[in-house]
Amino acid sequence: MIALAKNGLPQMYRKGAFVHTVRGSETQPDAPVRPEGDSLRYAINVALGLSFIDVEEQCGILNGATAADLIQTTATRAEFSHDPGAVALAAWTAAEAGGLYAAPLFAGLTVLLASGVPVATVDCSWMLLAGLAGRHLGDTSRLTAMARDRLIGAQSKSGLFPHRLPASSNGRLRAHVGCFADQVYSTQGLARLSVAQFDPQALVAAEACAARICALQGPAGQWWWHYDVRDGSIVEGYPVYSVHQHAMAPMALLDLREAGGTDHLDALVKGLAWLDHHPEMEAPLISQSHGVIWRKAARREPMKAARAISAATTALRPGLHIPGLDTLFPPGQIDYECRPYELGWLLYAWLCGGTVERLRGMPAHGAAAKS
Prior knowledge:
Strands 4-3-15 form a three-stranded antiparallel β-sheet. The chain has a three-stranded antiparallel β-sheet with strand order 7-8-9. Strands 10-13-14 form a three-stranded antiparallel β-sheet. It is globular, with a radius of gyration of 20 Å. The protein contains 17 helices and 15 strands. 53% of the residues are buried.
């Protein structure tokens, strides 16, 4: 799959940036994929992943440019972005992979968290990861502390995290819902924090979340999509996203292990196996000929109906589901697209080993002078 990512990314690169997606065809399986749109977030994701492969390979993928070039470009673009997630990703990537302290990005993120406005849990987790990555380059202590406190303060007794911080800002019918990404990046950020700043409470929090999502993993290795943070149950399992299976779950759980937490290798192996043996359909998800891993296995449903219904019923009572949803909206449809960040995270997840350990011996900016 690492080789597939390297082969597939060049077709997603356009004029110094990355497209939003490449789309295939269910009715014409041999047709080439079609690039669409542009995404700053995805370009940043790819830059982070590419920083862990040889420069020669980077140049082959980026038409002569390097990951360092892409990092510089995306960090500059992020200065003009109104997307806190993109800004946090750019600050994280610039610091960790480029050794650059993007001061305007860190300043904007710090002001945002200090204002107390609601933020997406994923964005907050990326702010924490950015603060940790840049702590030896500049003063990120305030950003790191605020992101840490927001996350730990919002974690439920089940170990899970809501979709927004505070949860109430997500609306009455969805305040109880957290998605898989919310759990993954929170676990990753808190695991790294526990090492960088010797924060035992952060490791306990990361352990609790990881334990819960692993306990809920599907029988064929599926990492489910929406959770009820109140009691740690499933709100709605589908779609199952391939990137969760091959990149995001491994990225977080391997970081947790490197931080001294529980080894969830069995769950990772089971999750990877789903890509080859998925009970939802017979068609393959990995396409070597297209250089992609198709995006997800989804229900055949109009307008995300099952998710809306399940969110509403579980809002009334945890675990309340309408019988027959699997029969009415069977999970047997492949989404024939692949987004650049999916391959970027794949590279990062499996090639960034040692990053957590390096945080252990990395003094914060100014620490040596003060001592």
